[in-house]
Design brief:
Shape: extended
Strand content: 15-25%
Helix content: 40-55%
Structural class: alpha+beta
Largest sheet: 4 strands, antiparallel
Radius of gyration: 36 Å
Number of helices: 22
Distance between the termini: 52 Å
Number of strands: 19
Length: 622
């Protein structure tokens, strides 16, 4: 009886769990779960959120040059930005629904007919292509057309909200005056060579006082001691063997990369009229005309007539014989072709290339091993994730899987070992005591999970540990103090009427520089200081790393209105201001619509969609 009662209790729990999961839509984000929230009466659909998130992930992948995972996106808050954008779009759609704003069938049809994806070979709308493309995307014509109607109405409402927005003309003029302002100035640099005795040596008391008065110079930043389990492609490659015949098959499949015949880089210019061809040949041979000039006379550019790299087999025998007979670059012709007489400009000679299998075997192995290693890691992802979900520790992961256990202290800027990975470093710097280890993907396809062991707060290192650093910093300070005094003396003398050149200095004059000008060898603050000076003839002292710059303002100049880019810059500034104001108005409008209609978000549904996306990415190896 006791056993039966236990079984019944278990069945009841399982039944409740199944009902709960079914209602939650755990099967997939495209199954029972259709929305992650709503604004008013308009759903924030799962598909809209997924599409927007995938678009941002693709954009991030293109920017970084590598697959950008959902885990990385969530770490930098990209998923929350996407959610905010989708919520805004839904709020606009809800307002369009509320006020009855829509577009007619003609507008929808015109939008579809104008879409290149739905056009046939003749360039006209193709119904079969339309339906096929939608099926490939998992859409129906009815759903797609309704989405166009919603998007069009939303765009109309958006355009109406920001129509006529224009920044005052004085705004662009003011910013232009600031950006385009110019200054002329003279600067002289004083370094250690201007000091009678630049060799400063601190006493023990001076060094101790400097160390005590400047703790920020000698403070070790917060250190996070973490334990991690790590699986990298290199670790997996050590276990991979690839049969020699597979490597040779790969070599044969890519034989065009390793065995290439002698080639020429060619341009072909056809002149059908034989008289004109003869005249062109005479002008080319006498040097009166170059090939590019001849092409220009014929109304074509070199790009129009470029043949690229060609081998003998790519050309007719007679033409190939003439072209490959040249031992250097040059022009041959006219030669008969299907299109008429033609001149061939040999712009480059490429020798035959034959790289034997033995020379590239190691590279082929490395490529194949790397690919298999990443796939092997993908295969380990789910078992490792299951172990962590079951409560396994990192130490147990290292025993039961191919992952390796390690410990490291991570600080801002750490770049040794696994901390060289930005993803790991960011995770280590943000992990908390209460966080459970979870699998995260690295930039090279590896995996890791980590645990925070200890946070070592910042501490001031004792003098004995930083004596050399403290000594050098003290010396630099003394040099700058002495040079600053020398600069003050120089300024007083120059203001008294003597020239910088008369003092044996080497002044450098700059005329009409804008505030974004870059002067090599000078600190960036130099230009900032120059533009903060109010009167011509004023002097300022600018401190460098181990030198002092004495600056005199010579002239204050307005923007150069003769610069051909001035009008363009004014236009850009005005457009940027208009767009910025329009965006602010649009954001305020959307927030007001959300507040009025009411925003509801289902965080559990959002989490389910994110988890489903991450799981699918792992299964597909993306």
């Amino acid at each position: 009886m006791k056993g039966k009662a236990s079984n019944i209790f278990v069945y009841v729990l399982l039944g409740l769990l199944i009902l709960g999961l079914a209602g939650f839509g755990v099967t997939s984000f495209s199954g029972n779960l259709s929305a992650i929230g709503r604004v008013g009466k308009t759903d924030i659909t799962v598909q809209d959120y997924v599409n927007a998130l995938n678009t941002e992930l693709r954009a991030a992948s293109e920017q970084t040059g590598r697959p950008f995972s959902l885990a990385e996106a969530r770490a930098i808050g990209l998923d929350r930005q996407v959610l905010a954008s989708v919520v805004t779009q839904t709020a606009i759609a809800e307002e369009a629904r509320r006020i009855g704003l829509s577009v007619g069938d003609e507008r929808v049809a015109a939008s579809i007919r104008g879409n290149a994806a739905f056009q046939g070979l003749a360039g006209n709308f193709d119904r079969d292509a339309y339906e096929f493309t939608l099926r490939q995307s998992g859409l129906t014509p009815e759903g797609f057309e309704e989405q166009i109607r919603v998007d069009s109405a939303r765009n109309l409402l958006r355009a109406g909200a920001v129509a006529g927005v224009q920044a005052p003309a004085t705004y662009a003029d003011t910013v232009f005056s600031f950006i385009g302002a110019r200054r002329s100035f003279t600067v002289v640099t004083l370094d250690e060579s201007y000091l009678a005795d630049p060799n400063f040596e601190p006493t023990e008391a001076e060094l101790a006082a400097f160390h005590e008065e400047n703790p920020s110079f000698f403070t070790e930043p917060e250190t996070r001691q973490v334990t991690y389990a790590w699986l990298s492609p290199e670790m997996m490659e050590a276990q991979i063997t690839i049969p020699e015949d597979e490597l040779r098959a790969d070599y044969e499949a890519r034989i065009d990369e390793y065995v290439r015949p002698e080639r020429r880089i060619l341009y072909r210019l056809v002149i059908a009229d034989e008289t004109e061809a003869a005249e062109a040949a005479e002008a080319l041979s006498s040097g009166a005309l170059r090939f590019d000039e001849l092409a220009e006379q014929r109304g074509v550019t070199l790009a129009d007539i470029e043949l690229g790299e060609v081998s003998r087999d790519d050309l007719d025998p007679e033409i190939a014989e003439a072209v490959f007979a040249l031992e250097d670059t040059g022009v041959v012709g006219p030669l008969p072709t299907t299109f008429g007489s033609a001149f061939f400009n040999v712009a480059g000679l490429l020798n035959a290339q034959e790289i034997p299998f033995e020379d590239v075997r190691d590279d082929l192995f490395a490529e194949a091993a790397s690919d298999r290693a990443i796939r092997a890691i993908r295969a380990e992802l789910e078992p490792i994730d299951d172990l962590l979900a079951g409560g396994a520790t990192l130490e147990e992961l290292a025993v039961e899987t191919a992952m390796e256990l390690g410990q490291i202290g991570v600080q801002q800027g750490s770049d040794e070992g696994i901390a060289a990975y930005e993803t790991f470093r960011n995770a280590a710097l943000s992990v908390r005591d209460s966080d459970f280890p979870e699998i995260v993907e690295l930039e090279d396809g590896g995996l890791f999970a980590l645990r925070l062991d200890e946070i070592i707060p910042p501490r001031v290192l004792p003098l004995d540990e930083v004596r050399d650093q403290a000594t050098e910093l003290w010396r630099t300070e003394q040099v700058l103090i002495a040079l600053r005094a020398q600069a003050e003396t120089t300024r007083n003398v120059v203001e008294g009427g003597r020239s910088m050149a008369a003092l044996g200095l080497a002044p450098r004059s700059e005329v009409g520089l804008t505030r974004d000008a870059f002067l090599e060898g000078f600190p960036p603050i130099l230009m900032t200081t120059v533009f903060e000076m109010a009167q011509t003839g004023d002097f300022e002292i600018v401190e460098g790393a181990r030198e002092i710059h004495l600056v005199r303002l010579d002239e204050i100049l307005p923007p150069d209105d003769t610069d051909p880019d001035s009008d363009f810059l004014r236009s850009v500034l005005s457009n940027q201001a208009n767009q910025s104001i329009a965006l602010d108005i649009y954001d305020a409008f959307a927030r007001e619509l959300q507040a009025t209609a009411g925003l509801e978000l289902d965080q559990a549904a959002i989490n389910a969609v994110n988890s489903s996306l991450q799981a699918r990415a792992g299964q597909s190896g993306l």
